[in-house]
Design a protein that fits this description.
The protein is an alpha/beta fold and 383 residues long. The chain is built from 11 helices and 12 strands. It has a 6-stranded mixed β-sheet with strand order 4-5-12-9-10-11, sandwiched between helices. It has a 3-stranded antiparallel β-sheet with strand order 2-1-3, with no helix packed on it.
Amino acid sequence: MTITEQRTLVCTSCEHSHTADPRLWACAQCGAPLRFAQLPVFQPAAIKTRDRTIWRYRHTFPFGPEVEPVTLGEGGTPLVALDKPLGAARVLAKLEYLNPTGSFKDRGIALMLTALRASGVVEAVEDSSGNAGASFAAYAARAGIGARVFVPQAVSPSKLRQIEMHGATPVRVPGLRAAAAAAVRQAAEAGAVYASHAHSAYNIAGLATTAYELWEQLGRAPDWIICPAGQGTFLLGLAQGFAALAAAGSIKRLPRLVGVQALASAPLWAAYHGRASPVGGAPAAETPTLAEGIRISEPLHSARVQAAITTSAGDFLAVDEAQIRHGHAQLARRGFYVEPTSAVVWGALEAIQQRATAAEMIVLMLTGSGLKSSLPETAGPSG
């Protein structure tokens, strides 16, 4: 094993400590996800300014300088100003769908595969509704690691094709997203290395680079960030990154994080607002929605995500299918062709614009490319 900088992993539930190992995907005591015991130390002077990718922030990553990156050039995505159709606040879009495989997932999965390869892993499994599986397949190919990706039966054909083209083996599981998660855990129990982006603390460390980029691009933290949320890992990455910036004295206050879910499947929104179930669907049900990428019935990090939103004085919002369609069209007419999952941010923007002042800045996280999905006339089953 060549990962020299050993950092302690701590259970997010029972606080049991573990030696950092990317092959360890859950607490050995209770099965909950793990986190690194300490925040990354952000040092502006340590930024590798000639590198436009996430690796410019390598000093914040949980492994030593001798570890060779598994990279496809992820990160360094544009931040583009929008017009002001809804209110006075300045609105910008972070184009995460321009990452190498077409989604924000590449930031975290690059770190996860780097750590796995450095640990000597030669084969691994993952579960996904599409984007994470495609990213995992691409970076596994780059790392020379054999990959199987467990996907729901109704996974988007374009995302399934992307997984196959990278040489990974898709395992289509009858049923919805939760069925794929159950099947991959059976594979892990049988001895497979489970490279779970949803569980991985390395994934969160990679996603935190988005915060560092925003700080560099703006010269400050934005006032609001609106982000789609399924498991909530992107919100956790943003929270971790801005907390590290605050600890370094680089920002004076945290941005207000706003998580957005589809009303048809909104367990994080329901939990945050203390609701038993949202209108239009039960929070724990995988009700069909156009926003297939955030259709998660039982998020792993619910308590942590709620804490991150509360700490930032942010909010959780939910949008219905008509709002998703409207947002998809509005973004496309401004030049941003995103998948419906990303379009949930538009309905949230309409709400946040009523609360933001003219002096404030709002950033929309556009997480996945529209080239990887279609917008059907009606919302059908999705993975």
